[in-house]
Amino acid sequence: MRTALVIGTGLIGTSAALALAGRGVRVYLRDHDPDQARTAAALGAGLDQEPDGPVDLALVAVPPAHVAATLAAAIEGGLARAYLDVASVKGGPRRELRALGCDLSTYLGTHPMAGRERSGPLAATADLFEGRPWVLTPTRDTDTEVLNLALELVALCRAVPVVMDAEDHDRAVALVSHTPQLVSSLVAARLRNADETAVRLCGQGVRDVTRIAASDPRMWLEILSANPGPVADVLDALAADLDETVRALRALQAGKEGAAELEDVLRRGNDGRARVPGKHGAAPAVYETVTVLIGDQPGELARIFADAGRAGVNIEDVRIEHATGQQAGLIQLMVDPAVAGQLAGTLAERGWPVRR
């Protein structure tokens, strides 16, 4: 791949352009908002001008509702040898393109499973896709050269290719992406009019659950509108569980039996959480947590990581729980259980307040 045209310079389009440009591909940028394309170009993502002739790859990174029309115009204009999109829904655009009579041999629908709560070119980074799954949905009509260019794009962005059927993809993202977004927003909405005293009690649990509720509502309305059926199917099943949970809680409130139903839903949650891939996509590992009180001053994180390194311990994961109203917090260091005692001992020797 020597040349590429990125149509749509938001978070995903600009991040892909940055990755390609950083690896020697000549990238051209196009956006319905010229200022956004100029911003992406200023970041080093490419040139905000039209290519002289057909490019190797045209990457369409526009909202789902505009994907098919944008792709159809690009294909009709002969802008590239291969056409890809990065929309979060795959079945709809392909059906629309087929209805428009487009040649689908040069098109391949893709979806990088990466993103941030922020949007736009200023939120883009060249490493956004690194180590992340990038779904490819080829069909029997897909030209081999197009598939090879798609695989090259994924490799240049340092992502991990995953081949799926388009409809299977849409059902999968409804479960692991679209429904979690709605559930996060529904929980966060309970906080909107909550008493200030209650809100001040928010801990890491509610922060984790509501993190993605900060996402752009307009963007998510477009995504959900493109995949309503599969999302509604997941929510139907979730609603049934919620109804059962409410009945169990009301029974307990009335002094009746309900604990077994609650335990069932909690244990099923344990089972589901255990299936979420762990570090580097491997099977989930069980870590032990070493918790340390840490001050909110420059250099504290670097110091504790350096001390962990001196102990010869690899930190597998890390979380920080900030203390309300205090310039301090708890840092949770997740490590192999076999070395947890070694880490706790070394940190304590170096003056850290360790809590296990």
From TrEMBL:
Protein name, UniProt field: Prephenate dehydrogenase
Pathway linked to the protein: Amino-acid biosynthesis
Keyword Amino-acid biosynthesis: yes
InterPro entries associated with the record: 6-PGluconate_DH-like_C_sf, ACT-like_dom_sf, NAD(P)-bd_dom_sf, PDH_C, PDH_N, Preph/Arog_dehydrog, Prephen_DH
Domain Prephenate/arogenate dehydrogenase: 2-284
EC number from the UniProt entry: 1.3.1.12
UniProt record similarity statement: Belongs to the prephenate/arogenate dehydrogenase family.
Annotated PROSITE patterns: PDH_ADH
Keywords in alphabetical order: Amino-acid biosynthesis, Aromatic amino acid biosynthesis, Oxidoreductase
Single annotated GO MF: prephenate dehydrogenase (NAD+) activity
